[in-house]
Every structure is written in structure tokens, then in C-alpha cells.
Amino acid sequence: MADNTLWVGALTAGTAVVASWVTSRGTARAARIQAETAAASQLTDRIRAARRIAYVDVIEQAQRMGDLYWKVTDTQDDPDADNRLSTLKDLRISLRDAYAMLRHRVWVVDLEGPQEVAAAAERLRRATSDNYRALEAMISGDADAGRRFNESYAPFWQAVLVFVSTAREALRDTATTTSIGL
User: Fold this and answer.
1) For residues 102 and 125, what is the distance between their CA atoms, to the nearest angstrom?
2) C-alpha dist (Å) from residue 32 to 18, 36, 37, 38, 40
3) What is the three-class DSSP state of 46?
4) Which pLDDT belongs to residue 100?
5) How many helices (H) and strands (E) does the chain have?
6) Strand (E) positions, 32-181?
7) What is the reported pTM?
8) Least confident residue range of 2-11, 50-59, 112-121
9) Bond before 155 cis per omega within 30 degrees
């Protein structure tokens, strides 16, 4: 009887050791998976936050440029030709500065991605060209330049709206990727 007890005790102890080892491996694996999932989620959140900031910066800068475009339009109605020319030259300088900032922000969006948002940002940047050329023509005295400037606003604003829509979808896609756990 003592021999059976010894074997039962040894078998029980061996089973407990193996069960403990299997449990610890399972727990360690579950902890590793949980840590990897948390790290992936945090990375996705950081990417989403960086993209959101970059997108908002482009939108804000486009709004600033739009405000300057409205000032150019308002200036066209100034009956004092000297004052109008001086104001248009000042606005040209402001628009150059605003464009430089927009260009920088578009580059940041290009770095942050994704590609479809970067392409929309680039189209927005290029949509400022017709306005600037028309402004230069207005300063040079081209009588038709004011009309061309005003007609250039709608394509610019459409590029802004396309960028906003594309950026919104990209952020939603990033949020969806986060919620399903990469």
C-alpha cells in the first residue's frame, strides 16, 4: 500500500508541476498578447493624433488664405486707386507668407499620410496658384484680373472641402483600425 501511495503522491506532484508550468506559459502568453495589443493601440492612437493635428493645421491655414482672398475681393471695390494698389501689394505679401505656411503644412501631411490625404493636400496647395496669378495681374493693372480672381475662389474652396472630406475619412479609417485591434 505504501508503494501505491508514493506513486500516487509522485504522480499528483508531477501533474501539479506540469499544470503549473502550462498555466504560467498560458498566462505569460496572454500577458504578452495583451501588451502587444495595448502597444499597437497606443501607436495607432499616436498616429491618429499626429495626423489629426496635421490635417487641422492645413484646414486652418486654408481658412486664413480664404480670409485674405476675401480681403482682396473687398479691396477691388476701393474707389481710391492708390489705396487699392497699396492694399493689394500688402495683401500679396500676406498671401505669400500664408502660402509658405500652407506649403509647410502640406509637407507635414505628406509625411503623416496616408497617400490620398497627401494628394488632396497637394491639390489644395496648387489651387492657390490661379488666385495668386490673378492678384499679380490686378497689381499690374489688368482690368479683367479681378473677375479671374473671383472665379478662382470657388475651385480653391472646393479643394479645401475635398481635403476635409478625405482627411475625415482617413481619420475614421484609423479609428476603425484601432477599435478592431490591428
Assistant:
1) 7
2) 21, 6, 8, 10, 12
3) helix
4) 97
5) 5, 0
6) none
7) 0.79
8) 2-11
9) no
